[in-house]
Amino acid sequence: RGRLALALAAAAGLTAAGGSDFINFNEAADALKAADLSALDASSSAPGRRLSTSSRCRQGLDDMLNNEHWQMLNASYTRWCRIKSENEMARCCGLADFAAGRGENCLADGGCATTCHYSTMETLCNSQFGKACHVDRKLFDGTPLRVSETFCVPTDCDNGSDRESLIAWFSTLYAGRLNGWHEDWDDALLQCSNEAVGALLYTILGIFCAVVAVPILYILCVSPDKKGGVLMTAEENQADGDDAGDLRGAAAAGDTLTSGGMGATR
After folding, report:
1. What per-residue confidence (pLDDT) applies to 177?
2. Which of 159, 171, 211 is CA-nearest to residue 51?
3. 3-class DSSP state for residue 55?
4. Distance, CA of 135 to CA of 151 (rounded, Å)
5. What integer is the mean pLDDT of 98-124?
6. What is the CA radius of gyration of the chain?
7. pTM of the entire structure?
8. Which of 176, 223, 233, 241: CA 20 to 30 A from 103?
9. What is the pLDDT of residue 53?
10. How far apart are CA 50 and CA 166, in angstroms?
11. Sign of torsion over alpha carbons 117, 99, 108, 185
């Protein structure tokens, strides 16, 4: 417990003056690395819930948060999401003070919510770090405002036990730098898409399309058989032959007349 207190005190000592919106993960991580964080494995934020993640997950999270490309996009994302969240609070609350986290006469039952799904951050996450997920979080304790945020889960954290503990670990380890609208993570739910379910749905859709397409192509490309049908009788065939002979004779006669006429003209 002494080590746990040391770790949290070190994080709290890094709080920036003025309640900055941005998180300096380098400073927070460097201060906490000196403490033995294994004591957090036995702690929990709620009964039956493990607070700490695995050591590999912790390292993967630390590497991601200290990556300069992630930090650059995170700064841009934070500004953009701040604007969206503040605008939504002004829309859904009769009286809104976003900086203080207070709102009055706000819409209830999901009427006060916005989404901050940052496609550029999701692309970077999926290609470099792990899987882009979403966190559905209540921003302030005194208002119903919720936001669905992009949250990158490192590859080493993308398993059942680590995903369950990731939000509690993240909000505890970096508590000293989570200020203002970043501070409250008590009501936050990590949501990641199930790739197996998605693959199954695409497979079912492909089978359905194939089953529908094959009969349609068969009908369009293969002419139906007419059993017992006769395309042309012998009499009709003979009549066509006689007509063709008459046409040939008329053509020959016309050539003769034309030749004679031309000779007379000359």
Report:
1. 76
2. 171
3. helix
4. 6
5. 92
6. 38
7. 0.58
8. 176
9. 85
10. 10
11. positive
- Distance CA(171)–CA(164), nearest Å, equals 13
Q: 2-12 and 160-173 are packed helices; what angle lies between their axes, rounded to 10 degrees?
A: 60
- Which tokens is 234 given? 């012998």
- Report how far residue 116's alpha carbon sits from residue 79's, in angstroms, rounded to the nearest whole number: 11
Helices marked H in 36-67: 55-65
Using 50, 70 and 90 to split pLDDT, how confident is the model at 172? confident
Give the type of residue at 209: C
Number of helices and strands (H, E) in the chain? Answer: 8, 6
Does the CA dihedral 15-17-22-25 come out positive or negative? negative
Q: How many CB atoms lie within 10 A of CB 248?
A: 10
220 token code pair: 């369009």
Amino acid at residue number 56: R
CA distance 115 to 187: 16
Q: What are phi and psi of 111, to 5 degrees?
A: -80, 0
